[in-house]
Structures are given as structure tokens and as C-alpha cells.
């Protein structure tokens, strides 16, 4: 196995390995990570690259995820290009430092194959972990294929290190469903990759006094935080530009929001991650039965490209938002559904569906059932009032 | 690696330049400032400091001011050692890649209080020591969570009053012994471990210099008399620090590659009463309790003399 790709080539990779490939091509300086399923194969792969001398990085074998992020924060301040990865409980353990990384405006990049949270303990996929990170000030991508994982890591460094952005960035995707399944992936030449995302980050250490992580009184704190609001706005603009440039250079356009058959749809379903391919099959089946159904997939979750979503949904009747996470105690319990509901300035009716919790299987047939259910009940009073918990024992569809 | 840290033989060997300067908000009489001022005099300008959350951090970094004339980083409470590990790794690789002059010696120093080191930061410290990062970790130990208002930590000594080990009708302050942080560091087999005390300034400064000369992790545990938490007159900080050694409550020692040396021998010890009576945190003690503490010290002194192989700490005067 050799790391330097002289020209474009094709490989069969899991999303974890695709991420590791990209990181290996981006001349990362410091990697710190702690083992956790399903993330581990990323950092195993990177450790091998470092052991082979293919990647010239310091690999810190930290004793926890909290220290993993702390170490890359220290390294980033000192001017290193950094990488870490985690899942589930590990992301929760990092939580304190997630806020500090963004508050200090450090372009750390992290991969998160998503996984359910304990208790009961589950190593399988859902989005509970990444949803808990949504207000930490990180840019969050949610990709849906190994190719996109590879492409997005390359884009993530350029976005994170942009002077008008300087925000840490997560590239997340479905644990197991993607982290451990293999797909064909186009690998670009290492030269092209580093040319697309050259290292621009120099760190904060200078000669003499430079104080990082100071105490801010009520007279100053708010402005620091507001600058993060502005940085997120810049990130949205820059993410679009970077995606366009990526298309020009490599010929693959991922977009921030992907659509499927939405041109004349009445009912649309919004998803993130690997469920997208199953949804497209379900939409095709619904279409062949005369139902005007379309689909949307979010690739960028923070900042939320709400204007683009709004444009796509103009004139539509119903939007079904499928969440793989639960916001407990709410009538509308899907976290993404809540965000779309509150941010969307359009009269489209929103139906929240929770599915795939702890990797409860959800196939294209299941999604087709959801489509039929929504189609039949969309006009009944109170239909959008509650979340549909699809696939849990004891809750049956009334159609 | 080129080493440009000199071991001072007299205080006149210390530079006039300060890299930790006044204008901070530490309490009047706080000895943390004394410790850090000396640490940076020894370390010099090519130094990066990583500071755990605590008194020292909040008192010296109120934006837009700083007391630090070297790069200074504060991230959180429990992770100074992990952050310092990251800084060290970055400097190493950036030197290898030619981004930083490979001949430039850069000192990386992590500083934490007893709470940030003995308790919440112990895991990160263990990782840093075990992985062998070239970092000097200095713990300034004021024997309780002073920043939040004198709560008990794993470093709080036997019988001391704190706000969470108060003196009540049933309980009489802290009832457990101080955690042995030096023993923990020793178990990591790191090249240099020492205890120090600002009342023995040159001894402390020499230890800082030795630790910075070593290529590898080191830990220096410094006693930091706290006027606010120990309840003493602000002018008595250094006197009490000195009494700590004279009574053998505190022993200035070092382990150089595992070899123990007591750097401040005490031929005749004072009774612990001399140390305790100046501090409000011990004002509840009965004669019986003071004798109990004295007996514990006597046993500790025997252990140290046995370990050194001769009587470095003498009998009670």
C-alpha cells in the first residue's frame, strides 16, 4: 500500500478508509485519537500510514477523547494541521472542548461516523451523537457515500482554514452503514489534493506575549461569540464556492443540498446520510404508482443552508423530515424537524418522522410505507402535530 | 538538542528580565506569582505556557490584559497536560518539516493547581508522563480548590478545615491524608521529579532549570502557601512555606532518573505546632490532634531517612 497517488485512481473503500486516504493526502501534522467503535478503523489506517512513513505526522496515543481533542487544540494553536476522529460516547466526552475549539477559532478537522448513545449501550448507528454537537459552533457536514466522505474531508480543510471562516469542521456519516461498507471511490492525485487544499493555517504562537483562552468579562464575551455567528455566515458562502471549485478541478459536484425528483413534487422527504439511496428507490416506486414525491438530502448541516431548502420547497405541500435522533419531551421530537420548522419561512406543512434509532433497519420498502401513510393522512386534522415513531414495537401505521 | 538553560548558582545568575509581570489580580500575599515569576526567569522567552483553569489562570488573563510575556494558552481545567502534549508534538513535527528552526530550543511548560493536577487533571497528566512528551509540568499546590472558594481537593492535608470539610459537631475538617502525587509520578518512571517551595528560592529555581534541561517529561510539585484559603496574614506566606520545611510537613527533594536526594536537609526539626498555629484552617485543633499530626510526620520522616539511607531530616529540637 502506498500513499502517494501520482494520478487519479479507483479504489474500493469504506467511508472510514476513504476519510483516512484523504487525511493522508493532506499533509496533516498532528493526529490524536482514541479508539471507539465505529471510528477506530480510520485511525488504525492513519497509524499504519505514519508507521510506513507515508504520512509525516506526529501521532499522539492519547488516553481519552477529551485529551484527543485537547491535544489537537494545542497542536493547532502551535500551527499544525490537525486531525481527530470519534463517535458516540467519545464525542460526548469531547463536548466541553468542542465549544472551546470553535471559540478559539481553530481549524481542527474531525471525522464522526455517527453512533447511538448509551444507555442502553449500542454500538450501532443513529444520529444522537452528532445532534448533541449541533450548537457547539462547529461546521458539520453529513455525507452519504464513501466518495463524498473522501471529497468532503479535502474540502473541509480548505473551508476550516479560510481566513474568513476559521472554524473547526466535522465530517460525519453513518456508523457501520457507511463506516464499514465498501464502495468504489475515485482517489485524486496527492498533488492535486494538496493543491486544492493548501496549508494556510499558521497557528497563534508568535514571539512575545500572546494570550490564548483568556478570561472575558461581560464587557467582551458577547462580541467574541457574535463573531462566531458571522463566521458561520461566511462558512455557508465559502462552502458553496469550495464545492464549485471542487467540481471545476475534480468533476464531482456534491452540493450543499441534493435533490431528487423535486421539480414537480407535492410531498418531499428530507434526510441526511446513507438513507438517501433507499429513499430514492422508494421515491421511484411512489412515482411509478402516480404519487408526486421528491427527496432532499442535507450535506451541510451547520451552517444550515436554509435559503436553498426554502427555494426548493417553494409551492410544495408537505415536507417529511426523517430524524435518526430524538429530542425528548417535545411533541415534534425530531431535532432536524424542529430546526427546519423554526427556520423555514414557508407555509409547507412539516411532518416529523423518527426512524432508524439504534440502527433499527429502515429499508426502501419502509420508506415507501411512510410515503403512503403521509399521502393518505396529510389532510387529516392534527396530522403534523406529533412525530411518527416509525419502526418501534407498539406503534402501527394507521393505513 | 541544544540546551541554553543554565542552572543558577546564586540568585544573581537569574536574569533581571521578567516574563511574568505585575498588574495581575492574584491576592495580596499570594505566592503563586512568586513561583511563576521565578519559573519564567529560569525558562526565558523561548517558552510556551499551558495553564489549567485555576487561580493563576483567571487572575492573570482578564481580557484584554495579560501578565504573560511569553505565549500562554488556557483551554480548560482537566487537560493542561493533554494540550501541552499537542503543543509539543506540533513543535516537533514543524521542526522536522522545517517550518520552525530545528535548532531553536522551545520550552513547553504546563502549570496546574492541585485540583487541576491531583484530581480532575490526573488522567491527562498520566497520559502525558507515560507518553514521554518533552514537557515540564509544574503543580502549584495550595491544598484546596481556592479559585472557587476553598473546597477540599485530593491535596488537602489531614485535619485541615475547608468549606467542604468544615469543622462541625461530629467532623473535624479533612480526615484523609494528602494524595501522594510524587509517588504517582514515580510510577510513570519519568526522568525528573521534584518538590519545591518558594521559601527556598534557589533550590526551586535550580529544579526548574534541571527539569527544562532534560529531554522528556518532568514534574515539579511546588507548595504554594495561600493567604486566603489557609487563613493567614498576607505577609506570612514565605515564613509559613519555610516553616513547612523546618517542621518536615514538606520535604524539598528530587528524583533524578529515580535517584532520590533531599535537597534541603533539616538537621533539627521544629514541632509542627509552629507551622499550624499561624494558620486559621488549623485553629480548631486540640493538643491531642496536633500530637496526632506530629506523629504522622515522625513516621514520614523515618520513611524518607530510610529511603535516602542516612538521617537527612533530624529529630525534633
- Biggest beta-sheet profile of chain B: 8 strands, mixed
Any guess at the CATH architecture of the largest domain in chain A?
3-Layer(aba) Sandwich
Helix proportion of chain A: 25-40%
The global form of chain B is globular
Mean pLDDT of chain B: 97
The top level CATH class name of chain B: Alpha Beta
**How helical, in percent, are the residues of chain B?**
25-40%
Which regions of chain A have little confidence, pLDDT < 50, spanning 5+ residues? none
User: Could you name the ranges of chain B where pLDDT drops below 50 across 5 or more consecutive residues?
Assistant: none
> Strands of the largest sheet of chain B, in order across it?
2-1-3-4-6-5-7-8
Average of per-residue pLDDT values of chain A: 96
- Give the domain tally of chain B: 1
Structural class by helix and strand composition of chain A = alpha/beta
Please tell me the CATH architecture of chain B by its name.
Answer: 3-Layer(aba) Sandwich
The CATH homologous superfamily of chain B corresponds to Thiamin diphosphate (ThDP)-binding fold, Pyr/PP domains
First-to-last CA distance of chain B: 48 Å
Number of strands of chain A: 16
Molecular structure report:
The complex is a heterodimer of chains A (399) and B (317). In chain A, 38% of the residues lie in helices and 18% in strands. Chain A has 399 residues and is of the alpha/beta class. Chain A folds into two domains: 9-250, Thiamin diphosphate (ThDP)-binding fold, Pyr/PP domains (Rossmann fold, 3-Layer(aba) Sandwich); 257-389, Rossmann fold, CATH 3.40.50.920. In chain A, the strands form three sheets. Chain A has a seven-stranded mixed β-sheet with strand order 3-2-4-5-7-6-13, with helices on both faces. In chain A, strand 4, helix 4 and strand 5 (109-114) form a beta-alpha-beta unit. Chain A is globular. The mean pLDDT of chain B is 97. With 317 residues, chain B is of the alpha/beta class. Chain B has one domain (11-308): Thiamin diphosphate (ThDP)-binding fold, Pyr/PP domains (Rossmann fold), CATH 3.40.50. Chain B has eleven helices and eight strands. At the A-B interface, helix 3, helix 4 and strand 9 of A face strand 2, helix 3 and helix 5 of B.
